[in-house]
Amino acid sequence: KAVNLGSITEGIRGATRAVKILWQADDTLGFVARGRGDRSVFHSDPSDEVMYMIKGDMNLHYRTPQGEEKIAVIREGEIIYCPAGVPHSPRFAPHAYVLVLERKRRGDERDRFTWYCERCGKQLYESVKHVTDYNADPVSRAYEEFYGSEKSRTCESCGHVTKPP
What is the tens place of the pLDDT at every residue in 144-162? Predict the structure, then answer.
């Protein structure tokens, strides 16, 4: 069934939930997400991902194999391919929208949600999940785990404590 992306973005503009699942077929997944001002997690998924900026711009933070953080800017109307396993953190304003296309997870695959210290860059916390249904909002569940524990937010290397949004 064809969908109108303008109608989808209008539908989630004022909604509590910032994601609208378009489909979860046997081997593919498509959804539209509204930006969130407090995105800090890096997501590593076991499948390739394609992101198309419907409205607004995105700063796609990602980590290189050497652990260096870099930023790719994706402008409205542009599309980007993110290979499986690349830790990435899509950061865009609440009035911006992205279309995400990826492969649905297989039984033995796990997604990783990782936070790094904002002061020294060391890994703070990682939540590993088997994502079977995006309607369960795995990103929000990982946020609840991380921000719900001061121990998870405290860097063992430099002592910095990440503040909740």
Answer: 999 999 999 999 999 999 9
